[in-house]
Batch of 3 targets.
Target 1
Amino acid sequence: MKRSLILAAFLPLLVIGCRKELTCPQGEIDCGGICVDPASDPAHCGACGNTCAPTAACLGGSCAACATGATSCGDVCAVLATDPEHCGDCATACGPAQVCSTSAGVTACKATCDDGLTACGRACADLQVDRFHCGACGAACAAGQTCSAGQCVAGVQVACGATDEVVPLTAALGPAGTGRPVAAGPASLATSGGSVYSVSGYPVATLDVLARDLRTTVPLHVTTLAGSDLQAVAVHGGAVLVVNAGVNTLDVLSPEGVLLDELPVGDQQAAPNPKSIAVVGTRAFIPLSGKSDLSGQQVAVADLSGLAACLAETAPPACGTGGACDAGRHCIDGACRLRCATLDAPIDLLSVPGSLDAPGAPFPTRAVAADGRVYVALSNMKRVDDCGGFGPGWCAPAGSGKVAVIDTTAGDAVTVVDLGPACGTPSGLALQGSTLWVGCGNYAFTSAWPGRIVPVALGPSPAVGAAVDTGPVVPNGVVICGDVGYVPGMTSGQARTFDPATGALGAPVTACRPGPFGFEYVADLICTP
């Protein structure tokens, strides 16, 4: 089994596969096997199954308030842009043969709907953006959700590893609907087109393909992969790329979740332990944390130039006896498929000046890429035997965290940025323009290495800015969506926003509820507006 960089954060992964009777947090109730807050859940307002009208909101266990986008007109919540009984304002009612239509910001009673609008009864709705008629007349989105291209979406979605679900939240981290269950504890999320992809870390390795439209609550497809330790998922060139640390491979799947290729990364005898993935052009860069005897400690490089041909093949020949295939193909799930990727020479980090503080090792984890450069978080950890213990494993930071910068425009030349004493065990990276934000976790959550986020101004001579303490939300990464930053929490189940321009933090918000054994943590967060 792989060893987690942060041992305390690994504990939830040991138990989330087990099940016991559902116990809801204080203030929530069990409604059909899910925990809901009856004070604010419009589908279970005040009691299980008590559903508010689409134009009403649940406040204090009552459907008396109006939902966002609706206006109180006496005892009715009306959408003034489309309601023929309250067209434009509460006092204006359209005639029996008229519709209520809004065009260019002007709402009026008319004989027919304006161009681009659909008559839903006598209400004229834009099915692409109307959250009360999203994609079809009467198909309303849940509170906190918006309608985009006819789909109900939320500002962000979080992977709740302890409760095996992907939970939608507003951009401000408010509630935006019920979480959607996945096969096992989700470790990483990605989105592309109409799908959200979730990969599991334990106890089984699965890729769950979820609809971007939150009204579809069950996975569209579930693929079971080898091992039990999927670390990361990304989408590139129409393919879904999965980092599989259980069997040390880069797995390539179709958008629908069909396994197309399994590429071994690193020296398999050395347990390379791949952690994440970043793509530049047709090359994928995969940090390999290796293990405690200093094997690994590289960045694997995969050539993805065969990806298009691999994806285009719709009817590969069947495998022969014993999995036999013609040259250039290999047997995957009974089909002789083309190779989607090949392995190039790895980038050795142990030999890079400044990548470690003795007696530590780099232990690369997260990676992001932009403008021909790949940024890799280096945790700079000591081994157990260097801490006076024995056996395999990592024990504590040997010094401050670092970031390796791989310049693909200069022959993959590597330089190192030292993040300084404010950052121990970097746990996530996010780019916004010329600034790299680093989420800094800690080891065993000691006061010596508190949770922080640190900005790095990029350029010929990168400059590390002032660290921002994140309080109870110890970073399990860092994410930027537009002009809003997010810090998902490693153990508290909380997340918080921050302003990338100023570093100002929003209040901690509970994003993931406790699992059956009391653990709670946010494994990942993605932008899905």
Note: DSSP finds two helices and 45 strands in the chain.
Target 2
Amino acid sequence: MDHISEEEIRTSGHHIGKTKSPHGRQVRTIEHSWIPMSDGCRLAARIWVPEDATKDPVPAILTGIPYRKNETTAVRDSCTYPYLAKHGYAGVRIDLRGSGDSEGVMTDEYTPQEQRDLVEAIAWAASQPWCTGAVGMTGISWGGFNSLQVAAQRPPALKAVISLCSSVDRYSDDVHYMGGCVLASDMLSWSSTMLAYNARPPDPKYVGARWREMWLERLEKATPFIETWLSHQRRDDYWKQGSVCENYEAIICPVYMVSGWAEAYRNSVFRFLAEYRGPRKGLVGPWAHLSPELGVPGPAIGFLQETLRWWDYWLKGIDTGIMKEPILTFWMQEAVKPRTFYSARPGRWVAESAWPSDKICTRVYHFRDFSLEETPTRGGTLLLSGVQATGLDSGSWDPFGGPADLPPDQRIEDGLSLSFTSAPLPDRVEILGFPEVVLSLASNEPKCLVAARLCDVWPDGSSTLVSRGILNLTHRTNHEKPTLLIPSETYRVVVRMNAIAYSIPPGHRLRVALSPTYWPWAWPSPEPVTLSIFTGESRLDLPTRNPQGEDETVSDFGPPETAPPIIDEILARGVNDRIISRDLAIGETALVVPHSYSDGLRRLPDGTEYDEHGRDVFTINEENPISARTSSEWWMSLGRKDWRIRVETSSSMSSDAVNFQVTNILNAYEGDVRVFKKTWSKLIPRDLV
């Protein structure tokens, strides 16, 4: 189907083209509403609407996520949806099937059932007396994913999407795999998180006496998602389902893609803008995995105002001018000394009218001995034997803006790697896009990986990580049909790094660092690996952009605006440090990462207390790559005076040369009485990993 025009999209809904809704409308909150599904299941929703919406209907903005509308996201929701309702929209915040107060069971993420549910929910919202019949869909992370997936289903009432921190490719750009490597840092951790999340019951305040029956059904039918994820180590049909990159043409509504340079999902903004042919925009700031009005590192921006300009244009037919602006706006980051946290990143807003942009050129740096040269040169052969602990200073795969999330000074990592460093740069270099390292190499093992990091080396030697990529070399051709390497045979491979915008001042040096290990991001190869790098045939392709005169005309977004949040009381702060320890006697290294998405124990105004905290532990012995082990634990509690529950999960993952071993344990308590316990244990063959 051909894409319909912008004008057709803007005028195809009920009541599109009405005069702009007055600001400051009084807001009514519907704390709990049931949305019926065609199979008899009901989804729970909280809804914010203008008081007079039944007389003067408004478009609806819908979000469907599994993170509990009553506690986990209640404060965040209270900042966003009342703001939208005040400005003439209905906010519909849905707990996905099997989560929060919704009925049913959640069996996996991004399932066809989830998409069908949301298609029905859109139709339901469009039919309500307070709705004009026009619906927008939005969300960050999970909600950003399914906004794109549902758009590909083409529900008639869906007129536009804003997708934040999401992926167009579930295999290549999510918590499971990167470059065909198993993401040891996040796959088990996220599975353990969801096992605990899915084990929490609905709230009897909203579902009544059935809460215990619904809870026990969830517990009995709970599944550790990692068993499925790890059983699909290639990019097969399992991953293609829900990956909108398989068919961008399935989407016909306008899409606004948003991300941040400090988070894991920024590649999708550039991939989507390059491939989708419908109305589209992209925004990339300096932020971690947060909405831009809360953005850290700063500057945070007035993103809710920006969303109103988008929604007003596409859902109300008001020409806000947003589609006359450049297709891509991004924060060009200035160089900074390496730190694990920045409250703000210096830089400037820059825009591109098209992506790919004809303003981008490739600057080539050739490998020579241990240097990067701008002129081709004869090279030699350099050998590198992997150090298993290389990668401990990698930082979080997907930072949330915590105090220890970002990678520290890379000098230790650079020293453990094969590093190639340029002479001091004579001029400023601004990078924009996907740096690539083209390598001519050989391996002593048939199964191995290579990690490539690009660093900004300061005059005093400090090394700031700019971007990186990892590649399972059995996936060197594609991720669907990997093949073993022939030891000692020469291969030419391309390691594509994550997209980045970063300015390197004159006098600084570029560095490319290579390693056949990157723990705990990449699960290690089954045997110790030595790589041969043929320098004369290897290079760095660096996408650069010269400053443009029109850059000076790009406007700031203004300060953040939100509705006043509900006030929750912090009873105990969470811990988010990262601790590395080494046992020199036995050669073992451990990385301990505590985490708490709720930032500790909190009490909401209705007296509900909720807490979630846990930790991940990654251990490896220098003498033996198959000693690698990761474990993840979660403790979550929820309750009020006369009702209190607790769930605990303990998950572990290890391997030998042939198989992965994953074990998951779930315990659930009502008060102090354990009402459920189950252990899952599964052996999963390694598939050229």
Note: The chain has twelve helices and 34 strands.
Target 3
Amino acid sequence: MNYLLRIFALISISLFLIQCANQLPPPGGPIDNEPPEVLEVYPQNGTLNFSDDYFEFTFSEYIDKFSIMDALFISPEINRLEYDWSGTSVEVTFDDTLNENTTYTVSIGSNIQDLNNRNSLAKAVNFAFSTGSQLDVGEISGKVYDKDPNGVMIFAYMKKDSFDNPILVKPKNVSQVGENGEFWFLGLANGKYRIFAVKEENKNRIYNVGEDFYGAPFKEITLTDSSSKFEGLTFRLAKEDTLPPYMTNITMTDRNHILIEYSENIDSSKVSKDNFFIVDSINQKITNTKYFFQSNQNKPEYFITITDSLDQDGNYFVVARNIFDRSGNELETDSYQFVISSAPDTLSPSFKRIETGYDQNKLDYDNPTFKIFFSDGISSENLSEAISIKYKNKNNSFDLIKVDDAQYQINILNKLKPSRNLEFNINNEKIWDAVGNQLDSVNTINIETLSGREFSGVSGQISIQDTNKSIVVVLEGIDNRSQNYFTSMNSDKSFSLERILPGNYLIWCFIDSDKTGEFNFGSIEPFGFAEKFYTYPDTLKLRARWPVRDVLITD
């Protein structure tokens, strides 16, 4: 019995010691939604002749001790760090010998989280010290504009004979942005710098093409004794798409329909049935396709249809040629083997829906355009005859534009008025699929034009140094109902955007240096500058019939 009591006592003492050693916040209390703060750092910013072998940080609350390991950035790099926690403070020791007469910068990044509720540091904390009697005083600050900028890394490269390549070389100076997107470098030596923003996926401090989002600068920055600070370096993030689309799976759903799944959406404007054919490798036979269309507007899934049945003893491949994605990447030839189906195609093609782009499928009277969708690829030979659009009891003229073999755009040519009704009719007897299936019904849809009171607008002035250049204004929607709108700055430095759908928007402008009308994000390799942009600081809430005026975009 005494033996069991001694064992129990040892276990209890061990559990008590383990619990004391673990980093645990006090239990209970309200839910913690406040971000942690850095209350003290050692050494203090600006310290000279530093010779210790440790740093020390004190936080406002208990910190997840593992999060600091990925959020502590020291330039030049110091290796073999060890962390010793005591409550809300941590001592970071190192056995590396610091370089003589060198400025070091330390950044405590925003990836640090508290222990209670995983709240992240609101912004990075930076300080600099020197092992000598002088401190480099160069500073570069700015902001990353993104829906979720928290944790984006900022890489700084100083030019020697040339600039290092961020794809190959880690930066010597690193910082991190907080939830407001702002960043700040300090303790920089005089010289010329290229700064990049990188939203890393694998935290290796290298830019990984196609995996990481990047932001390129609009200029290089030169720091000198007389010009040691630069403010206002801004970034917008993009991801490079360098890979062409490729087939990931093929399913023959019946003997006339083949479903092709792609790695990404392809550019339907450059693709048709003529880009695909079926090869029987055993019988050396080629089967051409009849129709091509996207089966799901939200996924990269596409159908091709054929008219002839395939032989059961064949070995079949879909071959695709010259397939482009929406970034312009081309795969010249691709092939994928599939298993044939002998199930008959018994479904007749049917009219599915219209899309006008407005609530309740109301039609814009000023630009009466809408899309129509079918359940299958159809012959367009008699489609114009199958469609009639009546307005004021008269047939309206229209243009029919094929998007793919199951989707068409209709542009009404006659002028329309607000709050009027149109009657859209389609006679299914005049359309058929690849094997001749058809319906004998007529679909009728009543379409109402907008009243004109559904819209909002925004206007204002641009007051920046570069107003003598070509400037494009962007109204960027930030919720599901909003869209993006573009306009050019007027000669009097004003801008106006009308007929805007209600919603929440950001508004910004950029210098259209390449005259494309689209924002150029620049590139990392080969290096290319991004176009300079300026952002209005507040979100615009646009309501119907209540346009916002007097917006001022400044630098």
Note: DSSP finds two helices and 40 strands in the chain.
